[in-house]
Amino acid sequence: xxxAATFEQFLAELAAAPSQATPLSVGDRCGxxxxxxxxxxxxxxxxYRARDGxxxxxxxxxxxxxxxxxxxxxARREALLCAVRHPNVVAxxxxxxxxxxxxxxxxxxAGETLRELLRRGAxxxxxxxxxxxxxxxxxAAIHDEGIVxxxxxxxxxxxxxxxxxxxxxxxxxxxxxxDAVLTTASLATRPAEVPGTAGYIAPECLAGDASSTxxxxxxxxxxxxxxxxxxxxxxxxxTASCFEAVMLGTPPRVDRLGPLEDFVCACLEPDPSARxxxxxxxxxxxxxxxxxAGEAMPSVDFGRYAxxxxxxxxxxxxxxxxxxxxxGEHxxxxxxRDxxxxxxxxxxxxxxxxxxxxxxxxxxxxxxxxxxxxxxFTMDLVVGEPFDAYVERGQTELRAAFAQLCRALxxxxxxxxxxxxxx
Length: 423
Description:
The protein is α+β, with helices and mostly antiparallel strands.
């Protein structure tokens, strides 16, 4: 597919194709692959799980939407990525046509998107640095090939255990002119469209400049911010207001990023020439990791509870996600950091004053325990986002939320308990 004559033949096949590809079903053949299942569909095509004659499973992306020219542009981008082989980039193995429409055969990655992971809450600074290094390393690899992703966001990053891979290069382009066949007036991105996703598009791209590797680094900075704080760096009630937030500059609450603040702010510099390269970001996060590892979380578990990750600060202590080794259930575990008698007394009082209250809008407390000189209590693990982040995402239907808040406070007051820190 890298040969110019071969690609011209490929374009000819596309020209003879119908306007839209027929969806594949389980058992259908596409080239030498048999369709096993449908993974999902997007604006440019459908991704299937497929198996070759040797039993090897792959992801097969059939491009079908937008007509011949758009299909050719998208297929060319997949072909360009065949040259990239990196552990943090989803591999593209081959490209072919099915009934005149292009398909790409990709590495099948079992995992979840970074977006799905972040729905469970913010990551610890150490985890942010670990995953951030891998995103930066993958970006450096594609940038070395002269490719710009142009749509880097949590939805296009797959996390499989400790390994992370960048995926979905549907908007990718070359920055050095080697894809001239795709930059003619007929194949270019329509001028009225800004490629990418609101909140991750660099300000210079919003201003009309061409995407560069620095634009990908800006998106990386937005992702680092979101991993650390569990909220978008730039948001708004509409796409236009989100664009406006990007153009205004630094996102809010960068001071809460702790040791990551300088790195994130450098990636989000309004001036693209002031941003570090992806390789520099990887190197800087790697240098920061040993310091973060020393403060990330306790080095031992708590009784039968195995620490999974740090969730944040609470009154009198820190809160972690933990796994109960007896049941396998995940809970929230609050650890008392200050062991002085007065603080221990308040810690126990906090638990005992509300442990008996059960209400749908209150986090349920479970057990107060000690494994010697460390006191902690467990409670229900709730997956969600802070209320302020919910509002800042542009949510306007707040009556139901406030009604639930009122019901929770009424339940506390009925037991003569005053919260004193509602926020």
